[in-house]
Amino acid sequence: MKTIFLAALLTLAAFPARAQNCSTPPTCASLGFIYTAAQCGSVGTKCPFDTSLYFCEHPNRNAAVGNYFFEDSTVSSSSYVNGKTAIGVVIKAPSSGNRGVVVHKNMYASSYYGADNYCRALTVRGIIGRWRLPTDSELSTLVGNSTLRSKLSTLGSTIKTGSDDWYWSCTNKDWSRIYLRRGTNVQEHTTKSDTTNRNYLCVGEF
Fold this sequence. Notes:
Distance between the termini: 65 Å
Number of helices: 5
Structural class: alpha+beta
Low-confidence stretches: 1-10
CATH class of the domain at 63-206: Alpha Beta
Strand content: 25-35%
Radius of gyration: 25 Å
Number of strands: 11
Strand order of the largest sheet: 4-3-5-6-11-7
CATH topology of the domain at 63-206: Mannose-Binding Protein A, Chain A
Largest sheet: 6 strands, antiparallel
Shape: elongated
Order of helices and strands: HHEEEEEEHEHHEEEE
């Protein structure tokens, strides 16, 4: 009995010391729970410390083509949401196993390598994946869809649709040549080393 009593006293004496060494618990954000239920939909997992925050591999599952995409990774059918800045327009909605695609609101002109390097280095917030040049298919969707062009115009970029208005893609014809597309949605190709300044936009996956 004395042995048991002594062991109990030693345990109680040691408890405060252990309590003082407890580390600060991680926050929801540090664990990746940074989205809302609306962004994750049915694929989200709630944070155990704050059930208003969720984690999901592909947020914004309810995003639709033509939605405005904001710097905090939210989407809206309106280009203006109080206190938020729209960074682009959704051109491909996410689907099962596939990310959505948003086109950045700014358009530039450069050689192929200049355009490719610029998009890869873009660090604007709000994108889960990386920024890149659009594929030939994505570019065709963009220049061929007047609604998407109008929405980008709302954010300050005018997609030119003339026969001399060319846009760089990231789709290879072969190892040294790249596809590009006119504003009239006609496909062509040129060498990657072509130094001609042509229009380009950057897209990101979410």
